[in-house]
Amino acid sequence: MTTLRRRTFLYGSTAVSAVAVGGGWAAAPLFAASTEPHEAIVRDAHLHWDSVPRDWRSAPLLGNGVLWGQVHRSADGRGLTVALGGASTPWEAPAARLALVLAGTPTEARWELDLWNAELTGTLTTTRGSVRFAALVPRSENRLMISLTPSEGESRAVWVPDENAQVSWCERRQGSRRLMTASLDAGPPRDVDSSELVEAHRAWWNSFYRRGFLSIPDKTVQRFHWAQLYRAAATRPGGEHATAMLDGYGHGDRAAPSTPTHVRATIPGTGSKEGFTGNMIAAAGLPALWRHCVHSGDDELLRETVRPALRRAVGFYGQFLVEDAGGRLHLPLTHSPTYADVHDSTYDLELLRWAARALVRSAALLGVRDPRGDRWNDIGERLVRAHRDVGGGPMVGAGVALGESHRHPSHLVALHQLDDLADSPDRAVWKRGFECWSALRGDWQGHSHLAAAAMSSALDDGDAARAELEHVLAERVGDSEFLPNTLYRAGGAAPPDVGYAVSRILRDMMIRWRGDVVDLFPAVPAGWADVSVSGLEVRHGIRVDAGRSGGRTEWVRVHSGTDRAWTLRHGINGPVTVRDERGRRIHGGGRGPAEVSVAPRARGAVVVVERTGYDGGTEPRDVTASGSGRRWGSPATSRRELI
């Protein structure tokens, strides 16, 4: 890659029109009134700074899923630093930096990160003047663009790259307006029409946010959710599928692997003697990738990537299984994460059981015959169940019960990572295990509370899930906390991306797929009396819109893109009317109260409303806030500023 020194292109009269748009772009008004609910709630989630962020821990994030950028105070406090990195580059060690050297010392700042347009705008005031700026990473170009308009006192502000920075950059000027473009590509950034680039960039982001909608009374949680969707799309490869991919409680890297290969795993029987190597099923992110395939119907990813990885993982562990006299299969010594070396580790057993069953299900989804299908099914059925303690809950492994606070509930992985197992015949066992783990909180970190929220949601306890979410967003827990830019920090280390779990938990509180049943609002807290959702992806091409008011579900619209029969558990009290997308009544008999069964032939939208008493609309709305809520960006005056 070529390292370029400062290059300033001063265009002549033949290129005046290009410079006029290239020297800066008009920032979209952040607080523009909007009657369109998608735009209104995303704009409400903007991040703001009333002081210059000090470093990566508090700086705003920009990106397009391939390149990311941050802007914060320079090390000497006299200017700004622009940091650039790729999808796998750690925040604390960017691939390149440029400094904006100012004439004066910064004294005041007012910055806003507009999520709706994925654009940072603001003003920096110094002892010599001020600098107005706008910054973004265009969705279609791997470059950071910063438009500057300095006052006369800061007219000599200059960009200077780090001595060893592998960065390509240039600057164009027209009068006092300047456009700096930087990238990690070799050679100078190619010239483009910045006005068209910015327009296309904004259009992409506006369309992205219209794919889904979620509004709840707790605006702190709501704003954090939209900030996570933004961050996933801006900084993760494939982040445009963020609504289906969000996952994690501190188990993986910043980017969920999209092409997992063979991940090294410690040989069962050695425990931690070879180091604390993770379970290869979890390390490859297979539960998250499986969830994405099922939600999105991405058969190619399932066939070419996920299924082969599952076969390798199950084949690897399968060769070490030991059969007892009763025909049950056991695992030799492995390490239960951060706790102990144990035989029959519940963590490894449940991941292996899930992977074997996922292999069987994947063959059915793809319509293929697997020559080893009987083997995968046999493993899934004959694996020994989790050993139980005296209270009936799952043990960490054979002979090892949970006896002290454990920040990572690895032995409860079936409940907080593997959706369908929460509804298995062992549900009471997992619930008991959760209660035992939750009673010992001395060693918890922020991600522990998120795991607790996920498990509470899986157990249909919305009030408990809400309490855990509010706690972790409001408080510093142990040596971990959510930072002003919504990154997560644990013990001062580079933050794992556990913030995405908040969005996944919220989705699961709103809707869950159980067998062939779509369960609406299974874990909505009592305090969230009004809820509005739209475009929530479930499975097999099913998307749900719904409205809840005064603690009651009023209407549901389901967009069905499947030929399978399914049942909607809508939760509307009393008689309902079921209509198709043309308003025609259709049969809506269910197996129980508050249920509607939809035949395989019924494609398109199905609308369910109360038969009497409801004459409202069936469109998304931003529900009334239960309090002011916290805004992200500048550090809160108090960590208890929430709610």
Textual characterization of the structure:
A hairpin with a 5-residue loop joins β4 and β5. The chain contains 15 helices and 29 strands. The chain is α+β, with helices and mostly antiparallel strands. The protein folds into 2 domains: 202 residues, Beta-galactosidase, Chain A, domain 5 (Distorted Sandwich), CATH 2.70.98; 283 residues, Glycosyltransferase, CATH 1.50.10.10. The strands form 7 sheets. An 8-stranded mixed beta sheet has the order 1-12-13-10-9-8-7-2, covered by helices on one side. A 6-stranded antiparallel beta sheet has the order 14-23-24-25-29-27. α8 crosses α9 and α13 packs antiparallel against α14. The chain is globular and about 85 Å long. The longest helix is centred in the middle third of the chain and has 21 residues.
What is the average of the pLDDT values?
84
* Assembly state of the chains shown: single chain
Unreliable stretches: 1-22, 247-259, 636-643
> Whole-number radius of gyration?
26 Å
**Number of E strands:** 29
Quote the CATH topology of the largest domain.
Glycosyltransferase
Strand order of the largest sheet: 1-12-13-10-9-8-7-2
* Tally of individual helices: 15
* Helicity level: 25-40%
Key structural traits:
29 strands, six-stranded antiparallel β-sheet, eight-stranded mixed β-sheet, 2 domains, Beta-galactosidase, Chain A, domain 5, 15 helices, single chain, 23% strand, disordered C terminus, disordered N terminus, Glycosyltransferase, 643 residues, alpha+beta
Give the helix/strand layout:
Blueprint (H helix, E strand, L loop, with lengths): L7 E3 L5 H7 L14 H8 L2 E3 L11 E3 L3 E7 L5 E8 L9 E6 L4 E9 L4 E8 L3 E7 L7 E7 L7 E4 L6 E7 L2 E7 L10 H16 L3 E3 L3 H17 L6 H4 L34 H4 L2 H11 L2 H20 L3 E2 L5 E2 L3 E3 L3 E3 L3 H21 L6 H10 L30 H4 L10 H12 L7 H13 L3 H13 L5 E3 L5 E3 L9 H11 E4 L2 E4 L10 E7 L4 E8 L2 E9 L5 E4 L6 E5 L14 E4 L5 E7 L33
Parallel strand pairs: 1-12, 22-26
Antiparallel strand pairs: 2-7, 3-4, 4-5, 5-6, 6-11, 7-8, 8-9, 9-10, 10-13, 12-13, 14-23, 15-16, 17-18, 19-20, 21-22, 23-24, 24-25, 25-29, 26-28, 27-29
